[in-house]
Amino acid sequence: MSYTPSPTSSTRHYLSGAGLILLAALGFSLQPIFARAVYADGANTLGLVWLRFLVPSLLLLLLLPSVRKPLKGAGVLGVINGLASLCYFAALSQISVSLTVMLFSLFPLVVFLIGWLKRQESFSMLRILALVGALLGIYCTLDSDMTGNGISWVGMLFGLGAALFYSGYIIGAPRWMPQDNALGGASWTLIGAALVFSLPVLAGQAELPVSGHGWLMVLALGIISTFIPFLLLIRGIAILQRQFDIAIFSTTEPIASIFWAWLLLQETLTQRSLLGVVLVIAAALLMVWSQSRQSARQCGAAITVKQRPTS
Fold first, then answer.
1. Over pLDDT 90: what percentage of the chain?
2. Domain-located, residue 296
3. Containing domain of residue 54, as a range?
4. Which of 47, 1, 96 is nearest to 200 (CA)?
5. Torsion angles phi and psi, residue 267, rounded to 5
6. Contacts of 148 (CB under 8 A, 6+ apart)
7. CA pair distance 230, 226, nearest whole angstrom
8. What span, in angstroms and rounded, lies between the C-alpha atoms of 168 and 170?
9. Is the sign of the CA dihedral 263, 269, 275, 276 positive or negative?
10. Which one-letter DSSP state was computed for residue 225?
11. What's the start-to-end Cα distance of the chain, in Å?
12. % of the chain surpassing 70 pLDDT
């Protein structure tokens, strides 16, 4: 006798994956805060990105010998994500947090369009509403003063590059990341990025922090905003296995970044920003509702097939 999962159990499984991705987004959202402190202590973009991946990589290799076995797929994802980080932090050094966040937040649209072109994603009213709501929510949270004569077009290109590379990471993760080894996958994602950026560092291109406070912020960036969120994200990806849904839930990261910027960096948080928060949360809830409806339909179809008389 075969077992048909109930809509409730399927939705609960979906929510567990979504919850892990939301927690990961919260950890990632602290990156601009720690990055600004490291920049202020004398580091450049290359030094910052290298240290961000080097710190958790060394901790993993020293403390957990089980992760020392190379995982090629995770290493490739590490390179892609490392390039996304390089573009993101380079953009932060040249344009505002808000503009960087806006450009980076285009990645759900990129993920959806690539999935649609490859016929891996389908249009539905709820999915389109979730995408539009997430993008509008990000737009509402941004500063009104994002343009002008002093804008850096190079910084904007870096922001777009971050969105494109991160889209590649989201799309590739379900295929290349080992589903039964979240710790090993997270480890080699970080190690792969650290190895790539070690080459220009060895060539003398990196500038590192100069004080104890700067190195403390490096540790916070490497552990609180890199290793722990990566582990949660990869586990969540293994559960969901749906790249568009992952991208929508990840839009909570820039929303949280803007909240931290308001709380810790005294950046402006207006009623319009709060509306953006509501829209992004509504987009995430739409994805959950869409999944619960799909689970109920699939369960009903399975029951109908079972009850159909055989000749």
1. 13
2. no
3. 7-123+151-253
4. 47
5. -80, 160
6. none
7. 6
8. 6
9. negative
10. I
11. 19
12. 77
- The model's pLDDT over 116-143, given as tens digits with 9 standing for 90+, comes to 777 666 666 776 777 777 777 767 766 5
Cα 165 from Cα 171, distance rounded (Å): 10
Specify if 173 maps to a domain. Answer: yes
Amino acid in the structure at residue 163 = A
DSSP per-residue codes, 148-159: STT--HHHHHHH
The yes-or-no verdict on residue 164 having pLDDT over 70 is: yes
Q: What is the mean pLDDT of residues 1-10?
A: 55
Residue range 244-262, pLDDT digits in tens: 777 777 777 877 877 787 7
Q: What is the pLDDT of residue 222?
A: 92
Q: Are the C-beta atoms of residues 34 and 225 closer than 8 Å to each other?
A: yes
DSSP, residue by residue, 52-72: HHHHHHHHHHHH-GGGGS--H
Structurally, the chain folds into a number of domains equal to: 1
Average pLDDT of the residues in 287-303: 57
Rounded alpha-carbon distances, angstroms, from residue 256 to 131, 138, 151, 231, 300: 18, 11, 24, 19, 38
Q: Provide, for the chain, the percentages of residues in helix, strand and coil under a 3-state DSSP scheme, each rounded to the nearest 5.
A: 80, 0, 20
In a domain, residue 141? The reply is: no
Other Cβ atoms within 10 Å of 77 Cβ, number: 26
Both tokens assigned to 87 = 């573009």
Cβ neighbors of 95 (< 8 A, separation 6 or more) are 151, 152, 155, 156, 159
Burial 219-250 (b: 16+ CB within 10 A, else e): ebbbeebbbbbbbbbbbbbbbbebbbbbbbbb
Residue linked to tokens 């920049």: 39
Structure tokens at 292: 């619960």
User: Which amino acid is it at 48?
Assistant: L
Residue 311's Cβ-count burial label (10 Å; 0-12, 13-18, 19+) is exposed
The two three-digit tokens of residue 155, written as one number: 């910084």
Whether residue 1 is contained in a domain is answered as no
Six-digit token pair at 43? Answer: 């580091």
Task: Give this prediction's pTM.
Answer: 0.68
